[in-house]
């Protein structure tokens, strides 16, 4: 076993024992499964080099949540979560289709961010003035995983398990697609299936993560784990494992620090992630001379 992976397993075991004995188990499980979620998504995003989508996902998620609340009150044929997921997937599929048709990803992303950000302001303002919601929309901006209800926790665990399974299933082919998509197509692989699976897991996971880690930090935590892992190893399989282990350790450490210092967990997790990234980058520079 890789020494880095072994060290991270030991560190995770130690911090998990500490936090389980220090804070309510619901807080620990919320942080654990959310960190597994973004830790597993991060290498997939890096493998396909779709960093633009990580930047756009929080904007889409915020707009989808606001529109989901509005549609639930106007057309109560679906619940709020179902409307939110459908809207999020429709927007992400639209971006993916535009890029698939040959449009420049940077142009598509810029246009999508402008559209979703503007619509989000209108939709959120409308929701705040018209409807009573069971959670604070401002917590979505800043993130507060400690306010997670048992219902939210069950949804988080279920989606995390499903998304992790899908990511493991599609990861290797997506790595190959990121390296040489034409080579993969020549071997008769149905790339449309893997593209749809990729956009689907990002769309669903980003909704869950927005409610937990917040709009401000979501795109950062979707990118940093895999970048840190790539600073440590060049193996795609090891990048996947290290990304998840780093995410769990950083998140649990951030939770412990936030409790002791009485600061927002999302903020402490983000700062620790930044420190780990800086350290991994320095070590990579020294290793490569």
TrEMBL record:
<feature type="transmembrane region" description="Helical">
    <location>
        <begin position="57"/>
        <end position="75"/>
    </location>
</feature>
<dbReference type="GO" id="GO:0055085">
    <property type="term" value="P:transmembrane transport"/>
</dbReference>
<dbReference type="InterPro" id="IPR037294">
    <property type="entry name" value="ABC_BtuC-like"/>
</dbReference>
<dbReference type="Pfam" id="PF00950">
    <property type="entry name" value="ABC-3"/>
</dbReference>
<dbReference type="GO" id="GO:0043190">
    <property type="term" value="C:ATP-binding cassette (ABC) transporter complex"/>
</dbReference>
<dbReference type="InterPro" id="IPR001626">
    <property type="entry name" value="ABC_TroCD"/>
</dbReference>
<keyword id="KW-0472">Membrane</keyword>
<feature type="transmembrane region" description="Helical">
    <location>
        <begin position="81"/>
        <end position="99"/>
    </location>
</feature>
<keyword id="KW-0812">Transmembrane</keyword>
<feature type="transmembrane region" description="Helical">
    <location>
        <begin position="192"/>
        <end position="210"/>
    </location>
</feature>
<feature type="transmembrane region" description="Helical">
    <location>
        <begin position="111"/>
        <end position="133"/>
    </location>
</feature>
<keyword id="KW-1133">Transmembrane helix</keyword>
<protein>
    <submittedName>
        <fullName>Metal ABC transporter permease</fullName>
    </submittedName>
</protein>
<comment type="similarity">
    <text>Belongs to the ABC-3 integral membrane protein family.</text>
</comment>
<feature type="transmembrane region" description="Helical">
    <location>
        <begin position="263"/>
        <end position="283"/>
    </location>
</feature>
<feature type="transmembrane region" description="Helical">
    <location>
        <begin position="239"/>
        <end position="257"/>
    </location>
</feature>
<feature type="transmembrane region" description="Helical">
    <location>
        <begin position="153"/>
        <end position="171"/>
    </location>
</feature>
<feature type="transmembrane region" description="Helical">
    <location>
        <begin position="216"/>
        <end position="232"/>
    </location>
</feature>
